[in-house]
């Protein structure tokens, strides 16, 4: 098979790019060809020819040249890539698949400017793959489809697997861009509450600070709660350092919140943390429900629940037996979600279209 991919980027350090690069690499290793078109010129595989807005129509014309020999066209998210794929496919007549990664496959269905184009693109696809059951449910609220399947993402377990390491400091860890829907305005106050019972506890947050206003608000929240010297913000760190943090942290926390129609589509970072034997805490009512084995390798709390998050942190930190059990369950959960089990599902989905 030869598959043409449309994506934002192929940067393995970003969530979207890591998903795309892992999947495409797995498909190529399985003996199939791939043509990658992307929006961002990130220095990795792929040709940066895709544009959004009015540029989608010119992009569709360019796509036809690159995908003329492909068997399948596969777009990651409907806006703008699924729309571009649908427009191009009017002339290509290839089998079309769209993966719904989360926000940018649902939010465009509520936007008057993109609603019709997005809905039509979805309906034109022979198959739609949602990365979580929550994403599938949100999608079906806006467009009637009969061909929506769930394939959860996976990670390269060996890349993230580390044995637990002794650390000179006790800290909880979060990984993800500093933006509202990641819920750091909830996790920082929760950390402050937990610190009252665990005085030596610290909090490390790894993520870019492009949203400078939100970062400033987080710094203020930390100061208002008296924990500004115990909260450390990190960004642009190498994978080796991130893996070291995963292996030394006491708990992984990401209290994502739904913001309008923006939500956590899945949460690969939960699997990355689990591969280092780290117990995890996330939120319900989004794609994290598929990324965490609730009650086994981690705890899910309701969104915007500061006290519940603090209680979850304390319940793990104060019980060494529970920590050890959750740590072992995390290793098992991460192995279960290795890419080696995900790639065959996509290959089966491709073959079903031909």
Main beta sheet strand tally, sense and closure: 7 strands, parallel
Question: What would you call the quaternary organization?
Answer: single chain
Count of helical segments? Answer: 15
CATH superfamily of the largest domain: Glycogen Phosphorylase B
Number of domains: 2
**Rg over C-alpha atoms, rounded to the nearest angstrom:** 21 Å
Distance between the termini: 9 Å
Number of E strands: 13
* CATH C-level class of the largest domain: Alpha Beta
Side-by-side strand order of the widest sheet: 3-2-1-4-5-6-7
Q: Mean pLDDT, rounded to whole units? A: 96
Low-confidence parts: none
CATH topology of the largest domain: Rossmann fold
**Helix content class:** 40-55%
Strand content: 15-25%
Secondary-structure element string: EHEEHEHEHHEHEHEHEHEHEHEHEHHH
Keyphrases for this structure?
354 residues, alpha/beta, Rossmann fold, 2 domains, seven-stranded parallel β-sheet, six-stranded parallel β-sheet, glycosyltransferase activity
Secondary-structure map with pairings?
Elements (H helix, E strand, L loop, with lengths): L1 E6 L7 H15 L3 E6 L8 E2 L6 H13 L4 E5 L1 H15 L2 E6 L2 H4 L8 H10 L2 E4 L2 H8 L7 E3 L6 H4 L9 E6 L8 H14 L3 E6 L5 H13 L6 E4 L4 H10 L2 E3 L14 H8 L4 E4 L4 H4 L6 E4 L4 H12 L2 H17 L2 H15 L1
Parallel strand pairs: 1-2, 1-4, 2-3, 4-5, 5-6, 6-7, 8-9, 8-11, 9-10, 11-12, 12-13
Helix pairs in contact: 1-15, 2-3, 3-5, 8-9, 8-13, 11-14
Pfam families: Glyco_transf_4, Glycos_transf_1
GO molecular function: glycosyltransferase activity
InterPro entries: Glyco_trans_1, Glyco_trans_4-like_N
